[in-house]
Amino acid sequence: MTDSWRLADTQVSSRLMIGSALYPSPEVMQSAIEASGAEVVTVSLRRQTAGQNTDSSYWSWLKQLPVHWLPNTAGCYGVREAVTTAQMAREVFGTHWLKLEVIGDEQTLQPDPFGLVEAADILIRDGFEVFPYMTDDLVLAQRLVDVGCRILMPWASPIGSGQGIRHPQNIMLLRERFPQVQLIVDAGLGRPSDATEAMEFGCDGVLLNSAIALSPDPTRMAGAFEQAVSAGRLGYRAGIMPQRQWASASTPTIGTPFWHQVP
After folding, report:
1. CATH dotted code for 5-238
2. What is the pTM of this model?
């Protein structure tokens, strides 16, 4: 576990958030979520609706977990569709939290920046706490903050790609420019070390799904990510040493015997 922190209007302990899709069975999903220590779990209204027809145990398994639900608008390609899905999700899951996704490209699943800002503006005015899934673009981040977003969720790389943080400088710039905003890296994290890197940058948390759910051992991988997030956060708080271009001796030369000294 990492240090306690306030996410939006709720106090939580874990800085790892995970998804509830792609698991081979509800039992494995529940086991992985428990092993992760995550207190925030994303869930799709579309997945739940499909589950009512094909797997009625899905939601019953989820309800057994003592977590906060973060519904998402996964699969929405337009503003109207995303807003309607969000309003339905609020009724189904009983929360004003929303992971807002407005997809702009079918192949890369890259968010539509224009639709994202428009939908965020509408939903915030409607009382939602919007967690916008976005690219790591600085101007887009500013536009989202301008309409009232208190949380930003930039991708590390395309969703489900497992490529890790492709542009570390962009994530670090977002952290520097928006110190008052909660920054949660979402999508593209493939290894526990990717999560550690994000936390070492000073991000407030990470959200992932595929890296755990598609692992041969989701429960063990969930535990690995839990420890990775904790390590990254502890490292950030302790203070990461700056990189140097040249070597710097870690052993002092004062008191070195004369026969060890370089002439």
Report:
1. 3.20.20.70
2. 0.87
